[in-house]
Amino acid sequence: MGHRITVDNAGESFECPPEKSLLSGMESQSKKAIAVGCRGGGCGYCKIRILSGEFETKKMSVKFVTHEEQAQGFALSCRVFPRSDMSVIAIEEIQSGNPYAKKNVTSKIS
Ligand code: FES
């Protein structure tokens, strides 16, 4: 029996069993709310902010999630394992390929 994971800003939710990472659980249900990269904590693309719920994390590189960010609920979804239903936000700017880009970047169309 999985936990219900809701990605608030994407309006999507999926079931994730405790032995799977959030990213893996999402992928196994063909959802795309969170950006998928290396699946192993090495790229930072899958970064999320956890709003509520209980979870465990595997070691995360401070290169992608600083200690300060961890304290604020940021995490790499490929390193997060749910222990209850959870509510998270996908960090959209990661999907642009720049983890440190500001959210209000205007795109140029030529
Ligand atoms: S997918 Fe690369 S850090 Fe999670």
How are the elements arranged and paired?
Layout: E1 3-7, E2 12-16, H1 22-28, E3 47-52, E4 55-57, H2 67-71, E5 74-76, E6 80-82, E7 86-90
Parallel strand pairs: 1-7
Antiparallel strand pairs: 1-2, 3-5, 3-7, 4-6
The structure holds FE2/S2 (inorganic) cluster.
Description:
This protein is of the alpha+beta class and 110 residues long. It has a single domain, classed as Beta-grasp domain (Ubiquitin-like (UB roll), Roll), CATH 3.10.20. It is 11% helix and 27% strand. Strands 2-1-7-3-5 form a five-stranded mixed beta sheet. A two-stranded antiparallel ribbon has the order 4-6. The chain is globular, with a radius of gyration of 13 Å. 34% of the residues are buried. FE2/S2 (inorganic) cluster binds next to loops.
